[in-house]
Amino acid sequence: MPSKVEKWKDEVYGNEIREHLMEFAEKGWDAIPEDEHDAWFERFKWWGLYHQRSGQESYFMMRIGTPNGVIKPGQLEVIGEIAKEYATGPVDNPEFGEAYCDWTTRQSIQLHWIKLEDIPEIFEKLEAVGLGTQQACGDSWRNIVGCPVAGKDKHEHVDAWPVAEDLHETFKGNDDYSNLPRKWKVAIAGCDEGCGQGDINDLAFEPAEKDGELGFNVRIGGGLSRKEPRLARDIDVWVPPEQAADVAHGMSSLFRDYGDREDRFNARIKFLMDEWGPEKMRSVLQEEYVDFELPTAGEDMRDQYSYNTGSQDGHNDHVGIHEQKDGNYYIGLNVLVGRMGADDVLELAELADEYGSGEVRLTQRQNIIVTDVPEENLDEFTSEPLLENYSPDPSPFMRGSIACTGTEYCSLSIVETKNRQVRYARWLKDNVELPEDHKDFHIHLSGCTASCAQPQIADVSLRGMKTRKDGEPVEALDIGLGGGLGDDPRFADWVEMRVPADEVPGAIKNLVNNFEDAREGGETFRDFVEDRDEETLAEMVEPEETDYHDPYMHNTKMTWYPYAEDDDMQSSPAPTDGSGEPLPSDD
Amino acid sequence: MTTDVHQLDDGAWISVNDSREVNVSDLWLLARSDFCGCETTDFLAEGFVKVGVDYPDIQARIAGQCIACGESGVTDWLTVGRVVDPNSGEFYGVDHESVHFPEKRTRLAHPEK
Asked: What family is it from (chain A) (predicted)?
């Protein structure tokens, strides 16, 4: 029997949702029939709107999909203006103020506290500069990710940006693919660094050479969610750039037709890959979905991958100053946990215009890159005061931090994340010394098993949990070690469970010290973890209270907003009307 | 009026008649349960896997783990609240901090995924 969500999708889904959304927006929050809330909120996701969690009714998270993370000249300013004007809630965030943008691990943008009534105006402003929210969430082609410096990078063999743009144009708003069984995540990269992160996507195009021609090998079925992480599997297909869209059509059609619509927990293509295996996946694709003979896989470049490999060589991320192939430079700026105040976004838009081409790009490590900066502008640009907070040369603990949305807004999360990770990074920077040869050290904090912060591919993986401390329930984290990508990708081993959140910085400090003492020769952290069993590693993680203070130990999910002075659920102003005034309750 | 129950957002919460009523991340005390070896399971709800109605009870099977011993899995059916009067549709949630007794069931009035 199809799931309830499938029934709602059968009634109204895809492009047609917009008309209803606009009508509701015009009439106001109350116009959505109460007995249709769930159905409409599920559908609104397709237009990038996610109803915020319990206690924040009538407010939405808005996701703007920027393929490959490319924000063209003129767009960043509009994004900053929209954040400043519309993304302000009833209470400020103590770390980030009243309005901010989140750069996500899928090179998208998230704004919070968006009111239904403001959506038409926001859409108009976004679309006027070529931006949009279509299919940013929901059961469809999501934002396409890739090497964030595609077209600029000296390590590039195929310019994947036009291919990504073509896929975006082809599959966004396309009724044939608008109602898939579940989300469909695609990665494409043409560089030899591996920064497309194809291994954790449903469909991945990775650079490969076949008979002297450059194109892409195809992998299928990667993903991290629900304690069921999978690496995408090689289906032995190579495709030239001009036929990437044909294979993408075939694979997403296959998923549309064969994906599980009865059980959403089993719907992602990784589970179909479990069932079929790569040989059957290839043969069904060949026989039923493409009308040309699929070439077998070409010679890939995976042995050159350095991105997020823990190797401490090469290109573990995009932070720093790097020469482009045209002689200009791109400057990767560290944005701690991916959150940037709206005023800072506006200032960066001005700087990108002044010193570069006005273009910026988002990375899958929640950072931002200013591209096309001529060499003669580098000194002046990097001396700008804004770059003190968004540094191209940050501490490894600031640089390596990723955090998901957490209980601040998310229904699924178990713990507070972003503000906590900010505090962790600052404390670690001040109190922990990595070995001198370790410039990259990734710590990813995800509030739950959905794994939006991609914890399984970090050196230190943190995942939301609960425990009891002195008998009282407190927020806690599971600690995993040794994950990463590269030629030999590896998911973290979960070695220490349910560590009270205030003991995690001490645990990381002890772990780093124990690593430094016990490592052999120039052993990297990742190799160190790989060569030791879980018991040995668990002994090296010694949770300990320190002078780190965690203000979010209580059950932040039980609050209407964790940082409100009166955070009791009953004190929530939500739902509110279009001007933010509380609406009368039925009770 | 039929009581409409489903789990949404990857099992993040249970909706009863289009109202968000039960959320993940709470701790539930489970007794006489074979979920783990603990006398009382200190169970963290991480996701609602199945929901159903066994009038007047609203029930769920919940994925999660015992935070005392670390055993993880899916509970048997747990009553998470009641809709006593289907005409009003009003939901009365149980106190998750009190002791609960999961039950194996062969009958489910309105199975939901």
From this structure: Belongs to the nitrite and sulfite reductase 4Fe-4S domain family.
Pair A48, A137: CB distance under 8 Å: yes
**Which secondary-structure segment (H or E) carries A415?**
none
Class of domain A399-554: alpha beta
Q: pLDDT tens, A497-538?
A: 999 999 999 999 999 999 999 999 899 999 999 999 999 999
Query: Which residue numbers of A have CB closer than 8 Å to B's CBs?
Result: 1, 3-5, 34-38, 42, 53-54, 57, 225-226, 262-265, 407, 410-415, 448-450, 465-468, 473, 476, 497-498, 555, 557-558
Does the structure show a pLDDT above 50 at A288?
Answer: yes
Q: What's the average model confidence in pLDDT over A535-551?
A: 96
For residue A530, the model assigns a pLDDT of 95
Taking the domain A4-128, which CATH number applies?
A: 3.90.480.20
As annotated, the residues of chain A forming the CATH 3.30.413.10 domain(s) are 150-304, 399-554
User: Which residues of A fall within a CB distance of 8 Å from B113?
Assistant: 1, 3-4, 262-264
Tell me yes or no: is domain A150-304 CATH 3.30.413.10: yes
